[in-house]
Amino acid sequence: MVQSKSSQTKKYIDAQHTLESNGYGHDPEWLRSIRGSALSRFSELGFPTKRRGNEEWKYTDIRPIVRLPFAPTIESGDDDPVSAGQLDRWSPGGSAWHRVVMVNGRYRTDLSSIGDLPEGVQVTGLAEAVQAGGTTIAANLGRLAAYDEDGFAALNTAFVHEGVFIQIPDHAELEQPIHVIFLVTALGHEAATQPRVLIVAGRDTRATVVETYASLDDSIQTFTNSVTEVVVGAGSALNRYTMQLQNEETYGVATTHVEVQENANFTSVYTDIGGALIRNNLNVDMVGEGGYCTLNGSYIVSRSQHIDNQVIIDHKVGHTGARELYKGILDGKSRSVFHGSIIVREGAAKVDALQEDKNLLLSNEAEADTKPAFWIYCDDVRCGHGAACGAIDDAAVFYLRSRGLDEETARQLLIRGFIAEIVDTIKHEEVRQHVDRLVSEKLNNL
Predict the structure, then answer these.
(1) In Å, how far from its chain's centre is CA 173?
(2) Rounded to 5, what percent of the chain is helix, strand, coil?
(3) CA 408 to CA 406: how far, in whole Å?
C-alpha cells in the first residue's frame, strides 16, 4: 500500500528543517529563500506516484522509491572510508583530468584534484563558491531547473547547499575534461542524496565535462536525486558525457536543464548501465539563433532493471538544429522507456530537428516503450522522428555464419555493432575508450 502524501514527504521536510536550523544557517538570504520556496512546493506536489492520466510517468512506477526506507543525509560524510586509489576505476584520465568528487552527497576536497586551470576558470564546491560571493551563482541557480511542476526538482532544490560549481569565462579553452564523480559508499546505505551541479560557460569557450555516478559496493541501496543546470554561452562548444554505473540496488532520478545560446553547440552522450530504476530528464532550451545540440544515449539493461529517458528539446527561436539518437539493449525482464519531445515555438522558422530511438531486445520478456512526439507551431521547419524495437536479425546472423563465424560470435558482433554507433560519437578519445570498456564488460555479463 502506498503511503499518504504527508507520510511520503514528512521525513524530507523534517530533515530539511533540521539542516536549515544547523548546517545551512550561514547561507545568504537569497539561497535560503529558494530552498524555502522549493520545500513548500515539494510539500504540495509530493512524489508522482499517480500514473493514470500522468503521461510523464505513465510507464515508470516510482512507488519503490517511496516505499523503501531512504532517509535524507543530514550527517557529515567526512569519515567515509574512500581513498583516491579507489577512484581510479572510474577515472580514465587519472591526474591529468580536473577531478571533483562528492561522496554520499558531500564535497570532498581531499579526494578532488583540480590541477592547473586556465585563468578565470573556477571548479569548486557549490557551498564554498556561494560563501565566496559573486553574482553568477545567484543569477543562475534554480533559473533553468524550475521546480514549480516537478516534485523531484523541488526536493533537490529544497536541499541545495553542497554540490559542484563550474564557471568557464569568455574565450577560455580547457584541454582536459572536468570529471565530476558522485560516489555512494556503505555509510550511505539507504540514504537519499541530492547532488547539484551548476555549469556556466561564457562566450566562445571550449570544454568537456564528464559526470560519473557510481557505487563503491554492490550491496549498497540508495536513492540519488540529482539536478544539473548548464548554460552554454554564445559561440561556445560544450561536450557533456554522463555515465551511470551504480549497482542494481540503486534508484535514481537525474534532471538536467540546458540553455544553448546564439551559435553555441552542446553535445550530450548518456551511458546507462547500472541501477534498479533510473529516470533521466534532459531538457534543452534553444534560445539563440545558430544554436545546435546533439543528444545521444545508450542503455544496456538486464534482469529486472528499468531505465526511463525523457528528452525535451524546446526551440524557442528559429535557425536552430538538433539531432537525437538513443539506442538500448534489453535482456531478461528489463524494461526501457523513451519519451522524446521536440517543441518548435511560433515564429521559430528554419528549425532542423530529428530524433530516433532504437531498441534491441535479447529476451522475449524484455519490454521497450517508446513515444516520440512533436509540438510544432511553425510551418517553415524540417523535423522528423523514428522509433524501432526488434530482435537480432536472423538474416544478418546467417550471413556472418556463412563467412565462417559461429552463431554466438555472430550474435555478439551484431550486438556490439548496434551500440557502437552511440559510443563512437564520443569525441574525446580517452572518454570513448573508457565507455567502450564499460559497455563491453556489461555485454559480457548479459
Answers:
(1) 24
(2) 25, 35, 35
(3) 6
- Predicted pLDDT of residue 79: 59
Tell me the one-letter amino acid at 347. G
Q: How many CA atoms lie within 13 A of 398 on its CB side?
A: 3
pLDDT at residue 2 is higher than 80: no
Cα(384)–Cα(239) distance, integer angstroms: 24
> What is the C-alpha separation between 202 and 46, in angstroms, rounded?
36
CB–CB of 141/134 below 8 Å?
A: no
**Are residues 197 and 166 in contact, defined by beta-carbon separation less than 8 angstroms?**
yes
* pLDDT tens per residue, range 226-274: 999 999 999 999 999 999 999 999 999 999 999 999 999 999 999 999 9
Q: Which of 248, 255, 187, 190 is nearest to 214 (CA)?
A: 248
Cell of 353: 530537428
For the four alpha carbons of 264, 239, 205 and 230, in that order, the dihedral sign comes to positive
Identity of residue 240: R
Count of Cβ atoms closer than 10 Å to residue 223 Cβ: 24
Evaluate the CA torsion angle 179, 122, 84, 19 in order and state its sign: negative
The residue whose grid cell reads 552522450 is 269
* 3-state secondary structure at position 361: strand
Which has the closest alpha carbon to 158: 62, 20, 257, 281?
A: 20
156 touches 141 (CB < 8 A): no
pTM here is 0.95
How far CA 227 is from CA of 62, 114, 126, 163, 430, in Å, comes to 18, 22, 13, 10, 26
Q: How far apart, in whole angstroms, are the C-alpha atoms of residue 192 and residue 12?
A: 9
Cβ atoms < 10 Å from Cβ of 397: 17
Nearest to 123 by CA among 34, 214, 198, 33: 198
Which residues, other chains included, contact 222 with Cβ-Cβ below 8 Å and sequence gap of 6+? 70, 184, 188, 189, 190, 191, 192, 193, 215, 246, 249, 250, 251
- Check whether 352 has a pLDDT greater than 70: yes
Looking at residue 219, its amino acid is S
Question: How large is the average pLDDT for residues 83-101?
Answer: 85
Secondary element (H or E) of residue 211: strand 206-215
Gyration radius of the chain's alpha carbons: 21
C-alpha of 36 from chain center: 25
pLDDT for 21 beyond 80: yes
Q: Where are the alpha helices (DSSP H) in 117-231?
A: 126-132, 136-140, 151-158
